[in-house]
Amino acid sequence: MTKGYRNTVQRTQILDAVRAADSHLTAGEIFECVRRRDPRIAYGTVYRALHLLAQHGLVQELTFADQASRYDKRVDRHDHVHCLGCGVLVDVDVPVALIARHVAAEQSGFEVESHHTVFAGRCRECKGKRTTADARHNRAETFALADDEREG
């Protein structure tokens, strides 16, 4: 592992859980995965280990305002698409986003060391649910208007 901290069985189990995941898990979800193998592990241990692993560049911590942080096994520079409906987070490689780093540095005068772009929207499933809900809402409004016209 990385120089600068002592590796433990628990830290290895936590790192393995992040690396085995097909999605970006929260600390709570990682805790549940590790707990299946080691029922004695504490949530605080998982939480502290995740921060340590992120500090040492072994995982990437992704924070979204008031939502729980999510952890990514990919530590290379890449971006994400975040669903505003269900919260799913998907890795994307957007080469054009690298230009944004240079523009930000040029406009601000900063020496930009890193950047992370998150595109927000709705996944196919949530977009479909929203379209269906909008259609139901529009039909309900149409029926309400028709009832008003009959009464008026």
UniProtKB/TrEMBL annotation:
Binding-site residues, Zn(2+): C83, C86, C123, C126
Origin: domain of life: Bacteria
Cofactor binding remark: Binds 1 zinc ion per subunit.
Keywords (A to Z) from UniProt: DNA-binding, Iron, Metal-binding, Repressor, Transcription, Transcription regulation, Zinc
Cofactor: Zn(2+); Mn(2+); Fe(2+)
GO terms for MF: DNA-binding transcription factor activity; transcription cis-regulatory region binding; zinc ion binding
Any single biological process term in GO: regulation of secondary metabolite biosynthetic process
Residues that coordinate or bind Fe cation: D79, H115
Family: Belongs to the Fur family.
Protein name: Ferric uptake regulation protein FUR
UniProt organism field: uncultured Thermomicrobiales bacterium
